[in-house]
Amino acid sequence: EVWTMMNSKYSEFLPSVQSREDLVAEVEGLSMDIDLLRAAIENEVQQDLNVAFTEFTELKQQLERDSVVLSVLKKLQEFDAALKEFSTALLEERYMPAAQRLEKARSSLRNVESHGGFELKIPKALRKELTVQEQNMIYQLGKEWQKLIVWKLPPSKGSSSLEAVVLSELHLHTVPPQREDAAAPPVAAVLQALALLGELHYKLKDFGQLLMEYILKPLISYPSLEPVTEEQPDVFILRFRSQELALDEFSPMKVFDKIKLIFEVLHKYLLNVPLEEPGRGRKDGRVTLAELLGELIWEELSNCLIHSCLVHSVPSSSSQLEQYKEVIESTKEFEKALKEMQFLKQDKTALLQYACNVNFHFANRKCLDLIKAARKLMTSEIHNTVKITPDSSTALPELPDPGSGDHPKTHGSSSLLDNETMNLGSESSLSQSTLSLPTCRISSSVQQLVELAYTTMEEAKTSTKFCCLQLCNCVRDIFHVFCEVVPKYHRENLQKLPQLAAIHYNNCMYIAHHLLTLGHQFRCLTTALLSDCGGTFVDAVPDFKKLGMECFLAQMRVQKRGVLDRLWSARNFSSMDDDENYRAANKSIKQVLHQLKGLGTVWQDVLPVHMYCKAMGTLLNTALAEIVTRITALEDISAEGADRLYSLCKIMVDEGPQVFTPLLEEDQNKKYQEEVPVYVQKWMTFRELMIILRANLQEIVDRWADGKGPLAEQFSAAEVKSLIRALFQNTERRAAALARIK
């Protein structure tokens, strides 16, 4: 059974094994076929494919080259056709088609030149031909432009004088022809052709320069110039005539009307031409000739109108500001008219901005005029003087009542300072002359300068806030300029001429005197404005006092050196018993007195009395102190020498007081001559020296009085002993006297 089972299983397995062996053999056969086929493909088909691909690539490159050549040939054909059409149109004076054909030819040539890889000589030749034809057309269009716009200028071209401008004419042959058979090309065609060729900008630029130089600027600069227009059948003529004009007839309104007339006729006969201008920001790419011209000349024209017209119309006083509204309205209408003619863009408002900013320009002009006027006063002659007294009236505005806050009216002549002085506190505790300026002489120019400051402050009260601030600052600037200009401009005279130094001192004190109360007098101005413009001007008072004092002290130093130089020739007052020495000393004394008398004369009625006496006293004191020092330093004085020294000192004592002549009236000067000891510190010392020169030993000892007498008040013990040793011989009496001096 087992064997039977095995046989049955074997008989069933054997066919499947056989079939599988057959399949293996078949697969092996197929594998060999595949290997043979692969070998055939690799050896034969691949080579054929490579050859085919190479041929395809070559054919493709050839096709591309042929396509480029075909494209170039087409563009060359288009270029040739465009040039032929251009030549025909140009001969027929059809400038627009000619310009378009020329542009087409340029585009075709540009396309040909854009293809790389070709070394063609043809594009270079074509470019040269295109340039020649373009220049030919530009030349013809230039001739047409010259026919359209004809300038007849004066022989002296470049001259902008009134006589030359009157001879200038502008002829526009742009009037539409009345005959249908007119052969002239349309204006628009010529202008459009110029625009397409890029030449219109240069033509308009030249036209704009001539328009500015011979028409617009002369109309602005010469108010007497009037434009005259004339229209004939085939031409429009613009010329000028000059007429008599009163000085007050010049106004921006009339200038605007003339300029507007010029643009109206230009707009009618030339500028109202729409042109194709792609890329200029317009949706349709169209722009008028007026717009192009406006872009070229408006900036120069507006600057000329501002600096040669509007600037002269700026009011010079606050009362004229209200009338300036007419100028603003006229400027607005002028800009509106130019915008309607498309000459001016909507966002351009330079003229109107300038006109509307009148307060700023008014303040600047006012301040400039004030500074100029002030500088003129500062550089005028100092020696032209006026007399100032405590009760003198000055043409200044009246003070407001204390605490009123109202704006006071201006009066022609009122004593501003006196009224204010009386209001500065309790009338029972202040006299009328408490803050009064003493009698003296000041420069008339300085008086006018102070009046100018008051008038400006008065005007500031009724001005706008900005103008008020500017005017207040200007007043401060005026006084600041005074401190800078006057000492430098008049330096030489102030150093050499003592009278001018005294007047300058008075001028500075006069200005400082008014600056003390200037801000207080105009307290009606707001606190904010006063603080912005420097408050009450009191801060400038020390500067002016210092300025005047420094100048006068410098002159005093010069005079002191003069006194000392003259006394130097006195040979130290030694050996006065020698006639020559005595004559030298006597001469020096008289020279000093002559110098002081001369000063007393030039300062007379100029300096305030107290300042006069103080200055003369200082100089006389310098002389006396120098004489005392020289004499007390002598080691030996003979009896004759002492007498001569006494006589010299007596000259100083007798004639010294006579230099005190502060007033013109001689009888009134005696009072000040008697008060010499008050102003001359060494006066009593000098008198004591004279007594010593004539006294004996006992008298000297008595006047010393153990250090309590009048001699002790003026001299030290050492000085008295030195004088005794010089005057007296060495004896027991002298020794006893010297012992008493201690």
TrEMBL record:
<dbReference type="GO" id="GO:0006888">
    <property type="term" value="P:endoplasmic reticulum to Golgi vesicle-mediated transport"/>
</dbReference>
<dbReference type="GO" id="GO:0015031">
    <property type="term" value="P:protein transport"/>
</dbReference>
<feature type="domain" description="Centromere/kinetochore protein zw10 N-terminal">
    <location>
        <begin position="1"/>
        <end position="83"/>
    </location>
</feature>
<keyword id="KW-0206">Cytoskeleton</keyword>
<keyword id="KW-0931">ER-Golgi transport</keyword>
<dbReference type="Pfam" id="PF20666">
    <property type="entry name" value="ZW10_C"/>
</dbReference>
<dbReference type="Pfam" id="PF20665">
    <property type="entry name" value="Zw10_middle"/>
</dbReference>
<feature type="domain" description="Centromere/kinetochore protein zw10 C-terminal">
    <location>
        <begin position="436"/>
        <end position="563"/>
    </location>
</feature>
<keyword id="KW-0963">Cytoplasm</keyword>
<keyword id="KW-0175">Coiled coil</keyword>
<keyword id="KW-0995">Kinetochore</keyword>
<keyword id="KW-0597">Phosphoprotein</keyword>
<dbReference type="GO" id="GO:0007094">
    <property type="term" value="P:mitotic spindle assembly checkpoint signaling"/>
</dbReference>
<feature type="domain" description="Centromere/kinetochore protein zw10 middle">
    <location>
        <begin position="141"/>
        <end position="378"/>
    </location>
</feature>
<feature type="domain" description="ZW10 C-terminal helical">
    <location>
        <begin position="587"/>
        <end position="741"/>
    </location>
</feature>
<keyword id="KW-0498">Mitosis</keyword>
<dbReference type="GO" id="GO:0005789">
    <property type="term" value="C:endoplasmic reticulum membrane"/>
</dbReference>
<keyword id="KW-0472">Membrane</keyword>
<keyword id="KW-0813">Transport</keyword>
<keyword id="KW-0007">Acetylation</keyword>
<dbReference type="InterPro" id="IPR048343">
    <property type="entry name" value="ZW10_C"/>
</dbReference>
<dbReference type="GO" id="GO:1990423">
    <property type="term" value="C:RZZ complex"/>
</dbReference>
<keyword id="KW-0131">Cell cycle</keyword>
<keyword id="KW-0653">Protein transport</keyword>
<dbReference type="InterPro" id="IPR048344">
    <property type="entry name" value="Zw10_middle"/>
</dbReference>
<comment type="similarity">
    <text>Belongs to the ZW10 family.</text>
</comment>
<comment type="subunit">
    <text>Interacts with NBAS and KNTC1/ROD; the interactions are mutually exclusive and indicative for its association in two different vesicle tethering complexes. Component of the RZZ complex composed of KNTC1/ROD, ZW10 and ZWILCH. Component of the NRZ complex composed of NBAS, ZW10 and RINT1/TIP20L; NRZ associates with SNAREs STX18, USE1L, BNIP1/SEC20L and SEC22B (the assembly has been described as syntaxin 18 complex). Interacts directly with RINT1/TIP20L bound to BNIP1/SEC20L. Interacts with C19orf25 and ZWINT. Interacts with ZFYVE1.</text>
</comment>
<keyword id="KW-0137">Centromere</keyword>
<dbReference type="GO" id="GO:0005634">
    <property type="term" value="C:nucleus"/>
</dbReference>
<keyword id="KW-0158">Chromosome</keyword>
<dbReference type="InterPro" id="IPR009361">
    <property type="entry name" value="Zw10_N"/>
</dbReference>
<keyword id="KW-0256">Endoplasmic reticulum</keyword>
<keyword id="KW-0132">Cell division</keyword>
<feature type="region of interest" description="Disordered">
    <location>
        <begin position="391"/>
        <end position="418"/>
    </location>
</feature>
<protein>
    <recommendedName>
        <fullName>Centromere/kinetochore protein zw10 homolog</fullName>
    </recommendedName>
</protein>
<dbReference type="GO" id="GO:0051301">
    <property type="term" value="P:cell division"/>
</dbReference>
<dbReference type="InterPro" id="IPR046362">
    <property type="entry name" value="Zw10/DSL1_C_sf"/>
</dbReference>
<dbReference type="GO" id="GO:0005819">
    <property type="term" value="C:spindle"/>
</dbReference>
<dbReference type="Pfam" id="PF06248">
    <property type="entry name" value="Zw10_N"/>
</dbReference>
<dbReference type="InterPro" id="IPR055148">
    <property type="entry name" value="ZW10_C_2"/>
</dbReference>
<dbReference type="Pfam" id="PF22766">
    <property type="entry name" value="ZW10_C2"/>
</dbReference>
